[in-house]
Design a protein that fits this description.
heterodimer; A: 764 residues; Alpha-Beta Plaits; Calcium-transporting ATPase, cytoplasmic transduction domain A; seven-stranded mixed sheet; 26 strands; elongated; B: 45 residues; mainly alpha; 0% strand
Chain lengths: 764, 45
Amino acid sequence: MRPANADVTARCPHCATTVAGAEDAYCCSGCEAAAALIRGAGLERYYDIRESPAPRPSNRAEPWSAVEVEEGPDGLCETTLMVDGLRCASCVWLTESVLRRVPGVEEATVSYGTGRARLRWAAAETDLTTLAGLIQKLGYRPRLGAGAAPVDRDLWVRLGIASFAAANVMLLSAALYAGWIDPMEERFARLFQWWTLVLATPVALWSATPFFAGAWRGLRAGVLHMDVPIALGIGVLYAHGVIGVVVGFDTYLDSMTMLVALLLGGRVLESAGRRRSLEAALALAAVVPTTACRRRGDTVEWVPSEELVRGDVVDIGAGREIPADGVVEGGEGRVRTALLTGESKPVRVSAGDDVWAGTVLVDGALTVRVSAAAGATLVHSMAESVAEAAGRTEVRDTADRLAPWFTGATLAAAGLTWVGWWSTGNTGGGLQATIAVLVVACPCALALARPLVGAAGLGAAARRGALFRSVDVLLRAGKVDRVVLDKTGTVTEGEVRVTEATDELLRVAAGLERFSAHPRAEAIVREAVRRGIPIPVGSSVEERAGVGISGRVEGALWSVRSGGDDAVEVFGPGGPLGLVRFGDRMRDDAAETTRRLVDAGVAVSILSGDVEGPTREVAERVGASSMWASQRPDAKAARIRAWQEAGDTVLFAGDGLNDGPALAAADVAVAMGSGAASSVLAADGVVLTDRLAPVEGAMRVGRVCARVVRSSRVTSIVYNAVAVGAAAFGLVNPLVAAVLMPVSSALVLAQAARVEALVAKEDV
Amino acid sequence: MIALLLLIPVAIGLAAVFLSLFVAAARDGQFDDLDDPPHRILHDD
């Protein structure tokens, strides 16, 4: 595809864009400034260690001075920014290093996983404008972001204490068990016993409190979930242990501490996955631009978008997001509302039309009177309802279908044992046997099966590009028999792309557009880079909003003007030369993914807010079994509910907030997170790459996990049944219990370890 | 055997020192983020 004259080319040393001319030429002033900044800070090493070229810095300035950060009593300011565009670990290193070299910066920590930058600086020495400006200069996009989800540090401490106690109690108990064979002096046996009680007490009274709290919550809500038999077991074992140590008989304190440690380990695994998805939900707050240009009489001022109130008048320039809901007062332009309506083409708006926060003004300029701002905007209320739906799934998580049966069976077995022994007149032996039944019936392996298999499954899904909120969702994904896809941004890439243009037209157009922040200009430059076309440097470039761009390229005067809704026309010295067309492209793997789903017996449907024509074309090209066009958000949700009533388990994949109701209605909701941090939704799962295949991969992981959970449940129930039977007849003593429990847990662990291998067998 | 009266508390006390280090680390937030440090280790200067 390279044009014939491509022999004199070089790459921009910063962003690797192909440029015409000599070596070491920067493609634009932005890259040159970024490179100067990096070299000035002595961080050239970045160019050696980076895994992908740097993004091209945009010249669109955010007026950060309007953002007020409160100064702490120690003179330090602290805030968290979301940073879009971090591509690799080197980006993180570069950003951190540049920020840390600014005098007055106390802390600059950037997280690659969540795209958050935590900044702490001395208010007297530097300010947020400087720091955010530096991030922007490097080519990344800072936004005023949501805070991080809180971490339950107590859970780690509980686990640490329980593990410490379990290991030491086991050591002391081993000495006591050895005493059965070679008896030790009574006073030393008592000494060992008292120490086991000292170690076990903080475990029962503090480490295990989440299980007691969970059981209590469940009982009050009338649900017998898994925490109930666990709390019962721990409580009985500890009470038995206290009496045993005081009176002087063998206890199960070793089993109890190990049980708590194992179960807490499972909790830690679960909470890590849950926190990650909660952070994705918090990122929603960042879709509204940080600042807005507010008119005050004859002057304008930049204010944080949150401070806008009803009745304010704001100016919005081309390429910017709209900061609040409102009515257009003056000017005109085209707004991309894909975020709210799913419409792929920008909508023309002029005086009197409504516009919504978070939508993008593609071109033109608008003056808008605010009707709702900050927490009152449509986008905010949608985000809230989605987050609320996300919160509901968590409650459902802990309630396990098996738990009531299990609890009932345990209590029945304990009761029968007691009655059986009592009827023979041996109340002492009966008490011991009943305690032993409660010990071995404690559903340790059963309770570990889900978090262990879940952690393996969530990891396997993540390696295939999909992050899921919880094991429950993943297991549901395995049962899905209808996949419903949104069109724009899910089946298609959802971005403006050049679909048709000759190399020569692109070359000239890119030369002119390289300095523009307009989405179409970026699409032209991106396509020219993709085709390897050397981009000439335009001079005396003049951009006029709503009209086009003109300037000199290689001596001649060229211009690029709007050529209808989905094209621009390029004019050379001799008149019009042709059109560059734009459109939305299907994801490369969309058809392949659909085929694999259909082969697995899953129905694939497309629901789009877009009109009939393009929707039908996409549906036919991917091979979807059915399609519905012009669907409003609530209509999508209604259709999904209709399928559910017909007995289908529905997975919905969408990319915009307009899909909020549909995501909330679906059994499994997957958001496409390939765009900016702001497009990540509070769905059950997020696809991290710009491919569709992870949706299918996650469903396969879900099926494997369901199978493994089922088989580990069988293992643990068989174990429990056999062990309870033995205990009922008085065959279980503390040593047998201490051996049986880790063996059953190890069996479950071994099964969980097979998840990745089982899924990999079906990978392509 | 009388040495056990001293040795058990000494052993458990020693282990408790390490436990308290772990607790301090957990409370300090060292286990808050287990995803980034593996990336970071390659780049620290």
